[in-house]
Please model this.
Amino acid sequence: MSFVSNPSLRGSGSASRFAAFRLPVTVALSLLIVTIVLAWSLAPSLFTSYSPVVGVPADKLLGPSFAHWFGTDHLGRDVYARVVYGTASSVTSALIAVVIGVLFGGLIGLISGFLGGWVDVIFARLVDVLLAIPKFLLAVIIVTAIGFETINAAIATGVSAVAIFARVTRAEVIKTRQATFVEAAFLSGGSRWFILWRHVLPNASRSILPLAVLQFGESILVIASLAFLGYGDPPPASDWGLLISIGKDYLKWPWLVYAPAFVTILTVLSVNRISRWLRKTD
Amino acid sequence: MSNAYLTYAAKRLGQAVVVILLAYIFTFVVVSILPGDPITSVLRNPQNGFTEQEIAEIIAAQGLDKPIIVQLWNALSGFLTGDLGMSMRSNRPVATLIAEVLPSTLILASAGLAVALVLALLVAYGTRFVPKKYGQGLLRGFPSLFLSVPNFVIGLMLIHIFGFQLGLFRVINPDSFWATFFAAIALGIPVSAQIAEVLIANLDKEAEQEYATVARSRGIGQARLFATHLLKPASLPVVTVVALTIGELLGGSLITETVYGRTGIGSLVQRSVSTQDLPVLQAVVSLGAVVFVLVNLIADLLYPLLDPRVKIVGGRKRSPTTADEPSIGATKAVAP
Amino acid sequence: MTERSSLLSLSRRRLLVGASIAAALVATNAIDFSSALAADAPREGGDITFLIDSLGDTWIPNNSAISSFQGHIWGHVTDKLLYVDAEGKVSPWLVERWDQNDNATEFTLHLKSGVTFSDGEALDAKAVVANLDIWYAGRKNEGINPIGLFPKTYDRAEAVDGATVKVFFKKPTLGFIPTLGYHGSILVSPKSIAQPASEQADLSKTAGSGPYVVESWKEGDHVTLVKRKDYNWGPAAVGHTGPAFLDTITYKLVSEPSLRVASVQSGQADVAYNASPQELKSLKEEGFTVATPRYLGFVNGWAVNTKLPPYDDVKVRQALQAGVNRQEIIDTVYTPDWHLATSFIQSNVPGATDQSALLAYDPAKAEKLLDEAGWVKGANGIRSKDGKELALTIHSNPYLATSKSVDELIAQQLGKLGWKVVIRAYDVVTYGEKVKFGGAAVPTYEVTRSFIDAGTVAGILTNANNGENWFALDDRDTKINDLRDKIAGAGSLEERGPLLDDLQKHVLDQGYFIPRTQIVQRIYVQSPTLKGEVYNGVAYASYYTAFIAD
Model:
C-alpha cells in the first residue's frame, strides 16, 4: 500500500520547524501535490512530450522505465502522459460536482435557515429525501438518466452532494442568526437581505469551505467509481477513473491500474489534509 | 417514558412516512427520464434482425406508451400494497428478484459494518494509547487515508494478493467465508473512516473530562479505562453515525459486488442500469430509502433512551452532541 | 416434389462427420491431437465450470435463444431439427431427412422417433408444429417475441402423422432449411411453450430435449446443468450420439475478464469466456487451450452511409478503404488467431471469395484519392474542403469488447491521412436508440452479425423486401439491385457463386463496406485437460462431446 511511503502522514514532529509559517509540513506537501495536479490540468504539454492519444503500437505494454515513467498501455501509449492529460477532465468534473453541491445545497440551506417557517419545513423534507437515497445509488440512477459521460457523472455526483451542503449551511445560518451581533443588526433596522449578505453568508461560508474542499476529493473518487462501472467518457479520454477501469482488464500489467490509482489516492489524500487544516485554522 | 418522548416519537414516525413516500415519487420521476427500456433494447440487438416496423408492433402490443401520471399512480398503489411489479428485463416479479439477492447483500453489509466497527475501534484505541513515537500521529491519519482509496482499488488488490497469489479463496465462489471476508474489508475500510473520525473526536473529549482523569489517577489499566470509562460515552454518537452509514454500505456494495462477482442488490442494480429496467431500479432505490429511514428512525428513537443527558424539549431533541445536525465528519459520506 | 435421396444425405453426413471433427480439432488447437485421439478415449464423468461475463436478461426461450450468453446454455439444454457446423454445412439431427417442392414453398420434415423432452413429453410432429408457430409469431402481447430471423414468409405447419411435419410458405423460402440449424430455432416442450411469459422466464420451468437439463440456477449468478442419462439423439455430425460424458456443467458469472482468466490459470475453473486478446499469447505458452472460432456471417467492419457527405463521394470511401491498416489491427489489438478480412463476409462462409487486393493498405493511394476529391491538408494536419473538415464519427459497437481499442487504432491511422476522427461509445441501450444504418449522424455503422446463408446477404444490404438498406443507397445503385435480384432467383449454387463474387467485388470497390477484421466474437480459454468440445456455425462451444483427460 502506498501509505508507507506517503510523506503527508508523517512528520508531525518536524512541524515545529514550520511553525513560523503556521503551516505543518504535511499540509505544505499536500499543497505542493495539489499545485502539481492543477498544473497538469492547465498545461499538460509542459509535463510530457508524449501524446495521450497516439501511441506506438509496437511499444505496447512496456513496464515502467525512464522513457515511460508509468509504462505503456495496450496501444503503446505512454501511461504517464495519459494520466497527465486526463487530469484536466478529472479535476474539472470534480469541481463541477462541488460547484453544483455548494450552489444548490448552499442556496437551499441559506433560504430555509434564514426564512424558517414553512419554507424550512418543505426544504427540510426535500433534503431528507435526498439523504435517504444512498448517495452512490442516486448518482448511478442520475447518470443513467442523463447519459454515460464524464460531465454527466459530475452532475450526478454534485446532485447527490446537495443534501449535505444544504444541511450544513442551514445549521450555520441558524447559528449565525441567533448570534448577538446579528440580533443587534436586526434591532438596528438592517434589511433582511443586507444582513444575509453582510453577516450570515460570510459566517456560513467559513464552514462550507473545508466541506467543499473535502467534497472535491470525494467527488474525484465518486466520479472515478462511476467511470469504473463504465459510466464515463468514451475513448480516448483518459480520466483517472477510466484509466483504472481500462487497466483492470490488463491486470497482468499492474502499472496500468496502480499508476493512475496511486495518483488518485495521493491527490485525494492531499485534498483531505488541506480540508482538515482549513477546519482547524478556522 | 414521558409524554414528551411519545410526542417526539410520533412526530419522527410521521416524518419518516412522508420521506419514504416522497423518495418513491422522486425516484419515479428521475427513473422516468431514462431514455430507453430493456424491451426495445433486446429488440434492437442487431443479431435479432427485427425490422423497425416489427419493433413498433411489438412495443405497441405491450402498451409501453401510457402517460407518466397513470404509470406513477399504478406503481405507487402497487408499492403501497407491497406489489413491486414485473422486471421488464427478465420478465420475472421484482419481489422475487430482490428476495433472491437480498440475503447475500445483507451478509456482505453486516460483515462490512463489523469490519468497519472493529477497524474504527482499533484505530481509535491506537490514537489514545500507542505512544507518540510509535506512530500515534500516523494512526490519526488513517481515517483520512481510508477515505482516499477508492474501494474498487482495495478490492482488486485484495483479490490479487489473497485470491490468486495466496489462494486463500476461490474467485468463482464469492460466497465462501474468505471471499466474503475480503469483500467485507474492501467495503468496510471507507466506512470505518467515518466511524473512527467521530470516535476519535469523542474520545478526545471524554478523556479531558474530570472522571477520566480521576480514573486514571486511581491507576486503572489502559484497556479498562478505554473500555469502561471512555468507550461507552464516546460511542453513543457513533450509534447515529452507524445509522447514517447504512446508505454508504448499500452504495458501496454496488462496486464491491461487481469486483468480487457476488450476486446481490448491487449487481442487480448494475444489470438493471445497463438495460434500464425501470421497475427494478425503482424498487431497489425505494427500498434503500426505506431501510435508511427506518434505521435512522430507530437510532433517533433509541438515542434519548440511551443517553440520559439528552432532553426532549417540546417534541424536539436537544443533546450535547447534536445528533440532529451531525458534524462535518459525521455526514461526510464515503466514496464507495 | 423433388425427393432428396436418403443415400445422398447419408453420404453427405459421413463426409460431414469427418469435416466437423477435423474442424473441431483445428479450432481447439489442442496441444497434441494424435495423443488426444489415441490415448484419451472419452472418459465418463467429471464436472466443469465455465466462467462467463453475463447470463443475459430474460430466459423466455424465444427472447433469449440468440443471446451471446444464454445461447451457451440453450445449446446444451435443447436440440435443433438440423445441425449447422462451423463450415456452414447443414446435416440431419432430429430431422432425419427432408423434402421440398420445386419452388421451395412446401417442405416435409421427417422426424427421428423416440425423442423426448425432459418433462416426459414426446418430441413428435405436434411438438414441432407448436415450436414453428411460436418461432414465427411469438406472443407479442405477452412479451414473447418472434424469432427475428425466422422466415417471415411462413404460412403454417401441419402434423401429417406422428413423425412427419409439412410446412407451407407464402413465397419461395430456400433459407428455411438452414434456419432450422440456427441458434434461434431451439425446440422446447409444448407444455413449456404454453406457459405464460412469467413462467417461461424461470429457466427451471422450461424443458428441452438436449443432453443436459437445468439442475439449479440463480439470476445473475450461475446455471448448473446435469447430464441426461437417457439421451441418445445427438447430431451425427459431431461423431457421438449417446449421453454426454461430463456429469455437470456450471456456467458461472464473473464479470471481470482478467478474473475469469486468472481463475482458469489457477485451476479454479475450466473455461474462461471472452478473455482479453492481449492475454492469449502468454496463455497459450502456459499450455492453455485457446479457441477463437469464427461464426458464419459478416466480418467486423463498417457499413458506410452513402447519403451523408463526404461519404457520398466514392473517392472518399475508397480512401477510407485503402487507409485502414488491417494488419496493424491484428498485430496490436488482436493476435495471429484473428484473420485478415478477405471480403465483407467471413472467409469460412460458403460462397465467400478472396478480395484481398481491394483491401490492401495503401496510404499513398488514400492520400491521392483525397487530394483528387479536393480535400486539402491544413496546417494542423487535418484535411478540409470548402471550410469543412474531413470528419468521421465512429460509434463503438457495444456488442464487441475489443471494438473501442480497434476504433482508437483506426482513428490514429486515419488521423495521419488527415481525417478528424471522433469516437462515441454508448451503452447497449443508448446505442440501440441512436445508432442505426444510414442514420443522420452515423457515417459508418459497425457490423457484427451472423447470418444463415450467403444468399440472404444481398437482400439485407438493399432496401427491397424489408431489407435493411445498409448503405442508404435506396435505389441509386442499379448494379447492386440487379445482383440482388439475380441472386434471389438463382436456382443452384453453381449459378449463384459468380453472382456472389460480383457482389463482393462491387461492394468493396465502391467502398460501401469497410472491413476491419474477420470477427471472433467468442473467445474461449480452456484448461488443457478438457478436450473434445465442438464449435458450431455460430461459434458456440458445445461440451456435449467434451471430456476430461488426465
Summary: The mean pLDDT of chain B is 78. The longest helix of chain B spans residues 222-260. The two ends of chain B are 40 Å apart (CA to CA).
